Amino acid sequence: MDADALHRSSIVFDGHCDTLLRVVEGKLKLGERSSEGHIDLPRLREGGITAQVFAIFIEDRYLPAGAAKQTLRVLDALCRELEVNADALVLATKAEDVEEAKAAGKVAAVIGFEGAEALEGDLALLRMFYRLGLRLLTVTWSRRNQAGDGVFEARTGGGLTSFGLRLVTECNNLGIILDISHLAPAGVRDVLEASSAPVIASHSNAYALCPSPRNLTDEQLVAVATKGGVVDATFVPAFIAEERTEASLEKLLDHIDHMVKVAGIDHVGLGSDFDGFPPPPPVGLEDVTCLPGITAGLIGRGCSEEDVRKILGLNFLRVFRQVVG
């Protein structure tokens, strides 16, 4: 099977994008191809994406009192896009939805929160957002919130708060995937210790290759794998190369190779963070239509078809099925 045929027949699961910010601001209609940004529905389909986690990030201007309301605005924008584009986009709240989307030639949209700010310290809001479709929670963005310290606050040595620990338990109970990207190291440790389910890092690379505080050390990679989780390699230039202008598809493949070597082939996936970083993008990863280049690159480096399918999406789908259902 050639690279393009392998890519088109695979489940391709992207663990993180920030495209909904552009939608809610009126800069993008998902169903229309855009010459700006990284993602829209026509380009998702051209890139062979089966499932896309659409993250909801709350900007500082909505904090602290407006986080829940702004989150509902963004969810409304997504729901309207789902209605308008029902022939191409479906909401996925369980693994079966992803598989059915693949069979139907549609894109499955998964709702994620990039930080727990929308919960405003109240697990009742978590339960309500779950009913609205929330299936993935990045515990913190890089700042501090009610659940714990993000990586910008790492100097404090702080991990999860008491609310953060209760949040982990309730996510486990409901079936919401916990995401440790952006957490300070102590928080990563706390989530891994407290969670009874596998956890993921939705958009992080290997610290050994690029020493950004947002990347994971080999020890952390092993810990996520031991928990049964997945680390999604990200396309953020500053997390690929110390000199962001040197970021490229080839250097991303170096990160994937390293993470597979350290964590194992069953514990690596993809998390682009498209529409979440400023230009220029990595060479060879200019937008989501470039995803088949990852498949070709992995084959070129000697990966088997089975291993390529795991990295493209089967590893993430396994965790999704185990945690969400």
Could you describe the 3D structure shown?
The protein has helices at 3-9, 19-24, 41-46, 67-84, 95-104, 123-131, 162-174, 185-194, 218-226, 237-240, 249-263, 292-300, 305-323, and strands spanning 13-17, 51-56, 89-91, 107-114, 134-138, 177-179, 200-201, 230-233, 268-270. The model has no long low-confidence stretch (mean pLDDT 97). It starts with a helix and ends with a helix. The chain has 325 residues and is of the alpha/beta class. Helix 6 (123-131) packs parallel to helix 7 (162-174). The chain is built from 13 helices and nine strands. Strands 1, 2, 3, 4, 5 and 6 form a six-stranded parallel β-sheet that branches. Strands 7-8-9 form a three-stranded parallel β-sheet. Helices cover 42% and strands 12% of the residues.
Provide a concise account of the structure shown:
The chain is an alpha/beta fold and 325 residues long. The chain has helices at residues 3-9, 19-24, 41-46, 67-84, 95-104, 123-131, 162-174, 185-194, 218-226, 237-240, 249-263, 292-300, 305-323, and strands at residues 13-17, 51-56, 89-91, 107-114, 134-138, 177-179, 200-201, 230-233, 268-270.
Percentage of residues in helical conformation: 40-55%
Instruction: State the end-to-end CA separation.
Output: 31 Å
Specify the CATH class. Answer: Alpha Beta
Instruction: Kindly identify the CATH topology.
Output: TIM Barrel
Given the helix and strand composition, which structural class is it?
alpha/beta
Count of all domains: 1
Q: What does the radius of gyration come to?
A: 18 Å
CATH architecture designation: Alpha-Beta Barrel
Based on CA inertia axes, which overall geometry fits? Answer: globular
SSE sequence, one letter per element? HEHHEHEHEHEHEHEHEHHEHH
Mean pLDDT: 97
The beta-strand count equals: 9
Helical run tally: 13
**pLDDT under 50 segments (min length 5)?**
none
Largest sheet: 6 strands, parallel
Looking at this structure, what is the CATH superfamily?
Answer: Metal-dependent hydrolases
Beta-strand percent range: 5-15%
